[in-house]
Amino acid sequence: MSLSREQVEKVSLLARLRLSPDELEKMTSQLQQIVGYIEQLAELDTEQVEPLSHPVDMRNVFRPDQVCPSTERAEMLAGAPHTDGEYYLVPAVLGD
Amino acid sequence: MSDAYEIIIGLEVHVQLLTESKLFCACSTKFGAPPNTQTCPICVGLPGTLPVMNSRAFELALRTAVALNCQIAPYTKWDRKQYYYPDLPKGYQISQYDLPFSHDGWLEISDPKGRIEPKRIGIIRAHLEEDAGKSMHDEQAGEADSRIDLNRAGTPLLEIVSQPDMRSPAEAKAYLTEMKLLLTYLGVSDCNMQEGSLRVDANINLHVANPGGKPIATPIVEVKNMNSFRAVERAMTYEAERQFEVWKETGRRLGDVPKQTSGWDDVANITRAQRHKEESSDYRYFPDPDLVPVTVSEEKIASVRAGLGELPADLRRRLEQTYGITPYDSDVIVNQGEATVAYYLALAQASGDGKLASNWLQQDVLRTLKEQSIEIAAFPISAAGLGELLQKVKQGEVDTTRGREVFMGMLESGRSAAEVMQSLGIEQVDESALVDLCRELVAANPKLVADIKSGKMQAAGAFVGQAKKKNPNVSPARVREICIELIGQMS
Amino acid sequence: MSLVELSATQLKSELEAGRLTSLEVTQAFVDRAQKFDPHIGAFLRLNADQALEQARAIDDRRRKKQPVGALAGVPVAVKDLLCSRGELTTCASKMLANFRPPYDATVVARLKAADAVLLGRTNMDEFAMGGSTENSAFQKTRNPWDLERTPGGSSGGAAACVAASMVPLSIGTDTGGSIRQPAAMCGVTGLKPTYGCVSRFGLVAFASSLDQIGPLARSAEDAALLLEAIAGHDPLDSTSVKRPVERYSQTVRQPLAGLTIGLVREHFAEGLEAEVEQAVRDAVKVYESLGAKVKQVSLAHSKYGVAAYYIVAPSEASSNLARYDGVHYGHRTDESALHADLAAERARLEAAHDQEGLDKLDSPLVALYRRSRAEGFGPEVKRRIMLGTYALSAGYYDAYYLKALKVRRLIRQDFDSAFEQVDLVLGPVTTSPAFKIGEKANDPLAMYLVDLYTVTANLAGIGGIALPCGISKSGLPIGMQLQGPPFAEDRLLRAAAMFQRATDWHEKRPMMKYE
């Protein structure tokens, strides 16, 4: 599977990254190289193999339904780039 | 609606579960707090924070799925659904993708008024996920910023996806009504649509009649922003007609165009297509490595089932069988909710007459609640107190018409039936005085006597009328009985 | 002997005996760091005043015979991706240049509870992505053994500050070798614990199913001391395993009798530099001389480790780093410039009647995301986000992510069967000693292949320890790695300590004649 520049551009939108034309060019060739290496996995027959997504086999980890005081709003908003003291602010959300 | 097409509707219901704390952190889930005062590093997704699942949320989800006759998966896991939106602070929603904790259930719907046939609506799956925050935008302000409140972010949400089994807007509404009732009985959600604790999206398309061939499916449209069950009904009606017009115009079939999303405009009474970027549907699900899977044993499912209590459908059947009331009556009572059912049961007990209790509950109690916009819990007359009145009605101590006066008196004064009756001067007429009165009437009305003798029993009604004029406290039934008896003795 | 040359274990007992004060100790390390770190660049922030103040307070408490924690008065450095309440936590990224978390990572809280003196925050590859610490957005860290070379990475600062005796103990994280590889390249001892051994709460995630926090120190004994302070179940981390914390520092001096060591056939394949191979084989002989048996084992799928790792890790990273969008915290692009650019672009497209261009034009919100992220992340982070986003995208999941998880299972099974035959596996950490700064900077794949011997432990979730076992002809440290079955940290530490009692490689220090 060869990765095209168009695909890389699409992925950059999915990943919400802005790439300049030069960056896109470089990214495409680097990803092609890496993906080419990764594709050696295809030579392994894994039909009968169960995927392993968690390295430790744990089950049923829960916490009790107990409320603890929330963090002060001022402290939470202190690190936000743009607020009105009550809300986080973003450019108008219109069908995005 | 017409023979030209059949409407196919499937519904996705999101309900907030009634937990104290959020799904993955200890922030409160209470509605209505000032913006961003119920958040913490975990639900705002600050770097390094990790989710730990609320056991109660899973319990409530399980309870619901069992009540919806779902298969419970012995092994379930959580996945990340990834998309960018400012009210989704982690850039992904923790949800369930390929291994939801439950699947393949059903909910039975019916309409005692007979507008729809009783049927089972299939449930494809129910899964547990976290809610997003809210983004607010002031349209008038034009280019101004949108404001983000994350109080709701992380609230436990159960998504229940139905099969496309509904064939009319009325069925869709009946499904939602029954679903809400069930969820309320289960105590898993308050189902308050105004506060967003119950939200509905619909998938709708048509199967257009195709003489001599298989019906043709039109493209599926997902309709959002419906804020009441009535809105769902209206949106479905509108959308079906709209799709049929589009079909006639374009002939487009299912698969010809990508799935469209529309929003219901409750003011304009129309659906509007929403802008849809192709890439936004690539959610890149993968198992959340921060959460471990959950396994559910057969014993666990059995104990959840045992603890469900009596669900609406069973309750209706019990009321019909125990008290001899009609399916219509049991439906009205059960649909009022548990508190009303409890009131009814107490009333039936106190009055010793389930049918009478049902009539009074529906005609007098429920009407009063509606007029005064109060809940049954705030209704001033206790079931025992009303039961006392009904017993008197039943025993003929007071007739129904005067009984209503007593009811109103009890409502206004807060006094007992006996006290109100006394103040209204209602008292049981002494039997011998009643017989004397009837003798008097029989003697004074030879024409009526002749009518009754010739079999025109309705003439007895006139005796009742005259008796009531002379003494409003007489029991109409007794007057009738006594007069007929006296006339019978005359021959 | 200078104070800074004492081990953490020695410092602890001297402090407990009252022969040293924490203030003296901390001052010695602060002086050392202030003298040498300008050359090395291991610390992003040396918190000298704060550390000295903390040391004074601990001394005070000790004088008053008040209870003190297990690391009371001993300086510890923390990699700059563990949240510390109210303190900058940057992950060496422009994205988080001003980020002050309102909470402590569990490990930081435990260090504070143990009364460790928090000396400073160490440099790293941005978001722990890299093997040379060159990907830091703020500064390069140089290898104390040769300033032209990298210290390895991503915990390069953490390893370099221990190697240069600027701190006795240091906290690193390891996602694909990020503790063990810089430990080897800097000639220190570094342990990557079994997944689930140390809480990840407050560790800014790179790849959640692979990340583990662990100690870097000058010896296994010291590493045991630090691990004991940070390990153990944490209810805030669902993947933290419930088991009692072992008393590593008590048992680390006990030799292992009847030890069987496995040599992995695949570890000695082509690519391994001769002097590294020799040093590792010499280490095997040391173990044999200590009574250990040696057996050949095979980890047949280990050659697929890097490929599987570079699917799993970037996929998880692409998701974990989605939260950096310039809305709730972190870097945000200049909004007025953004709106001006968008308006200009719109006008240009309208003038050209370019409808397709107009349709494709990002909304202000999408543009805000894309610019904020493009400005906040460095090239390697972007590369991995792109790679992971691609691997998880529609149509590729099965071929990449799912496939990698299956290979991951095979790699784990290889280890499981190896550990049926041997107690530990011994092998190299890297194919070669520390490489030069800039040497692999333009070849991402070559950089990824450095992780060849280390990624498999992360994929399998098992523990591994790197420790020095030689010096190359060019005067650079060479490391070896011991790997054990899950939760065999005690065994790893004791085996490493056995070796360190029999050899003095771990006591070799760089010359550091920089002036």
Largest interface: A-C, 55 and 74 residues
Please state the structural category of chain A: mainly alpha
Cα end-to-end separation of chain A: 31 Å
Give a quick account of the main beta sheet of chain A: strands, pairing sense, barrel closure. Answer: none
The total count of helices of chain B amounts to 15
Q: In sequence order, what are the helices and strands of chain A, one letter per element?
A: HHEHE
Which oligomeric form is depicted? heterotrimer
Question: Which terms would index this structure?
Answer:
heterotrimer, A: mainly alpha, 3 helices, 2 strands, B: 491 residues, alpha+beta, ten-stranded mixed sheet, three-stranded antiparallel sheet, 15 helices, 18 strands
What does this entry look like structurally?
- The complex is a heterotrimer of chains A (96), B (491) and C (515).
- In chain A, 35% of the residues lie in helices and 5% in strands.
- Chain A contains 3 helices and 2 strands, in the order H-H-E-H-E.
- The relative contact order of chain A is 0.07.
- In chain B, strands 1, 3, 7, 8, 11, 12, 13, 14, 15 and 16 form a 10-stranded mixed sheet that branches. A 3-stranded antiparallel sheet of chain B has the order 6-5-17, with no helix packed on it.
- Chain B contains 15 helices and 18 strands.
- In chain B, helix 2 runs antiparallel to helix 3 and helix 7 crosses helix 9.
- By secondary structure, chain B is α+β, with helices and mostly antiparallel strands.
- By secondary structure, chain C is of the alpha/beta class.
- Helices cover 42% and strands 12% of the residues of chain C.
- Chain C has 18 helices and 11 strands.
- The two termini of chain C are 22 Å apart.
- Chains in contact: A-B, A-C, B-C.
- Chains A and C meet through helix 1, helix 2 and helix 3 of A and helix 10, helix 11, helix 13, helix 14 and helix 15 of C.
